[in-house]
Amino acid sequence: MAKLSVNINKIATIRNARGGNNPDLIKVALDCERFGAQGITVHPRPDERHIRYQDVLDLKNVVTTEFNIEGNPTPDFLELVKKVKPEQVTLVPDAPDAITSNAGWDTVKHQAFLKLTIKELKDLGMRVSIFVDPLAEMVEAAKETGTDRIELYTEAYAKNYHQNREAAIAPYKSVAMLAQKLGLGLNAGHDLDLDNLKYLHQNLPGLLEVSIGHALICDALYYGLENTIQLYLRQLDPTPTLP
Ligand SMILES: CC(=O)[C@@H](O)C(O)COP(=O)(O)O
Ligand SMILES: NCC(=O)COP(=O)(O)O
Prior knowledge:
The protein is of the alpha/beta class and 243 residues long. The protein is 47% helix and 17% strand. The protein contains eleven helices and eight strands. Bound molecules: 1-deoxy-D-xylulose-5-phosphate and ligand LD2JLWAY. Residues 7, 9, 43, 45, 70, 92, 100-101, 131, 189-190, 213 line the site of 1-deoxy-D-xylulose-5-phosphate.
């Protein structure tokens, strides 16, 4: 069964809207864990529009499940993760002004940089994952970087799911099999939701973890956080349901 890591960026977005501490990010992270989340993901961005660097330091002291820090490996980001030493660092090549992450790494072009950065982080005991598009060439070159895992950027899958889910999953399935063959661990994330998650999970061999934020927090407005986390966990349950 793939692990569910709840991305709490959006909680920080709401908190920052009023400058106080409501909602309390630390409390939400602990509650997500209490409600069944198997990991907490944050993606501090250089403008600290949602998660602040201080949040990451504070979360480190309380998160007891897998702590996953995502971000562009700028000098500031690298200094932060080296201080915090989370279980997993996910490197994402996003531009500082991007509304959200919008592409995976070009693992061919950035091979040397990734190799160096990944080695540094792994030597300090962190597991490293890198964000990639579902392209065989990028996954093959990801293997050469020394990364432990790849995170498949699932925006295209989510976008095309309702039109033709078989076609939407096809490139992901194919690189998931390639990753398995290459001995790369497999994560996935971006725009996953209660509609598209189960099919992704059923079709990606070796899927280890999904990180979900935007849709999960939106769903929590209607169903409540505890129910919502349970609903997402149910999508990842390998037990076949009765017809
Ligand atoms: C890496 C990734 O897929 C992003 O989805 C992510 O972490 C979300 O970031 P924002 O919450 O800033 O859109
Ligand atoms: N790595 C993806 C992530 O953490 C959350 O993405 P989203 O669910 O907010 O699109």
